[in-house]
């Protein structure tokens, strides 16, 4: 049995939580793309699911990392838009990708670098496209409509950036006393 | 060498587990066993640590022919572990000294 669901999460941790709730009801993630999730029916709670942002890794690094994950008993489900979903049999015990404060903070930093870059590129493109309006000089930018889309994208990216900064700060505070 | 201290619990246990050649999953299982399940290292954490440790030359790939890459600790890595043990000993000794009033060694 197959089920396709359309969901859009701005917070990737909430999305992961939802995927695990689906798994608890026996719906196991088979494939994901932009806002589209395909599940197949199986045994409830058989797997634990995790997502990871892997954009920024070179092809070789990614291959190496995926090999490593597979060797650790992890199954890669699929990769889309810089994100990967993976699963591990729940019987094999707890499954977290990052287990200490230091590596979690490093992960947040890696994410922030790319998200901030995307934010600024979109914000800048948006401003440049929109300001073609009153400008006599043809700047070569496409249209104000695309400018509005750029600004919308920038705002959508701003939300996870805010979340990641919050989470990173909380960990850094904890790190003053604990590992 | 003092600049490297203290090691994180994860790095300390990864170095200990590489006194014998092991691959990533082997490290994960060994550390879990050694700590009676208290320390469960995630694959991302181990992967990142291995890369850093290789860069620092505290560990090296062992017999690169195998598909599953194994690693083993170097002499430099062993020195770091020995230094860490001394540091942990001091913490342990002073802890007992203050809380239990045990004799100075």
Total beta strands of chain B: 3
Computed structural class of chain A: alpha+beta
In order across it, which strands form the biggest sheet of chain B? 1-3-2
Helix run count of chain B:
4
Q: SSE order of chain A, as H and E?
A: EHEEEHEEHH
The stretches of 5 or more residues of chain B where confidence is low (pLDDT under 50) are none
Alpha-carbon distance between the two ends of chain B: 24 Å
Summarize the biggest pleated sheet of chain A: 3 strands, antiparallel
* Radius of gyration of CA atoms of chain A, rounded to a whole number: 19 Å
SS summary, helix count of chain A: 4
Low-confidence stretches of chain A: none
Radius of gyration of chain B: 16 Å
Give me the side-by-side strand order of the main sheet of chain A. 1-3-2
Q: Report the β-strand fraction of chain B as a percent range.
A: 5-15%
Overall pLDDT level of chain A:
92
Write a concise synopsis of the structure shown:
The complex is a heterodimer of chains A (179) and B (105). Chain A has 179 residues and is an alpha+beta fold. Helices cover 49% and strands 21% of the residues of chain A.
Describe the 3D structure.
The complex is a heterodimer of chains A (179) and B (105). Chain A has 179 residues and is of the alpha+beta class. Chain A has a three-stranded antiparallel beta sheet. Chain A has a three-stranded antiparallel beta sheet with strand order 4-6-5. Helices cover 56% and strands 10% of the residues of chain B. Chain B has four helices and three strands, in the order H-E-H-H-E-E-H. The model of chain B has no long low-confidence stretch (mean pLDDT 90). With 105 residues, chain B is mainly alpha-helical.
Topology (elements, then pairings):
The complex is a heterodimer of chains A (179) and B (105).
Chain A: E1 2-6, H1 12-24, E2 27-33, E3 36-41, E4 47-53, H2 59-71, E5 75-80, E6 83-89, H3 101-130, H4 144-175
Antiparallel strand pairs in A: 1-3, 2-3, 4-6, 5-6
Chain B: H1 9-17, E1 22-23, H2 24-34, H3 43-55, E2 59-62, E3 70-73, H4 75-100
Antiparallel strand pairs in B: 1-3, 2-3
